[in-house]
User: Fold this.
Amino acid sequence: MQKNKELVNNPICDEALELIGKRGTGQVFVGFTDKLTQTPLKNRLKAAGITKKISFHCSRHTFGSLQVDAGTSVYTVQHMLGHKNVETTQIYANMADEIKRESVNRITLKPTPALRVVKMGTEA
Assistant:
């Protein structure tokens, strides 16, 4: 971890493990640093025509957000990301709440081109 220099050990999901190969013991990516991914990431973004500045650190935010959205407890996500305080991780929960608010507002009973109100007992 870059900020507090503490190593966080997380399991690898079965799907990712299938892509990597057989299960071993110890670190999978010995000597791995964020810097090792920056150049390949920038090259792939450029090849895809993406001009937005995206760093490897963005993957941590994506991982945390997806975990919370999938129902993983904030405390589990806290430990997986190596946050000292749960308040840091609760940012992801607040983002999930915002997404939930947006999604519930997608349902409307107001007539729209896709929704036609028909009174019971009448044919349209």
Summary: The radius of gyration is 22 Å. Residues 84 and 105 are 35 Å apart (CA to CA). The helical segments are 14-20, 35-47, 57-69, 74-81, 86-104. The mean pLDDT is 79.
